[in-house]
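In this supplementary section we document a worked example of the pipeline. Step one takes a protein sequence of length 107 as its only input; no multiple sequence alignment statistics are reported here. Step two produces a three-dimensional model, which step three serialises into structure tokens for compact storage. The input and output of this example are shown verbatim.
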Amino acid sequence: MSSPLVAVTDHAVERYRQRVRGSLDPRPEIAGRVSSAWAAGRVSDEPPPGAAAQRGSVYVSDRDITFVCLWDRPRGELLVVTLWEEGEAPQVPRRFTDALKDRRRSG
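The serialised model returned by step three reads:
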């Protein structure tokens, strides 16, 4: 399976920065991880356990992170929308990410 062109949303960058310490601009790192995982066949139409299914999404897994993507098949483009962190001990506890959702709803 050949790797599609990968684009990354601002939201995915923000979520990645919360969970993975490192680069100033993580877009190239995210795109590289997604491309490598895609080429290795770590792609599914099924969401990871505990994640809500998003219609039309594909899930690309790399180590302990699953990237939630929209795939434009005719164009061969993959848009990384957000990510899902697997495991029992996420880098950022759920109460912080839930608080962000609450703040956006009230604003």
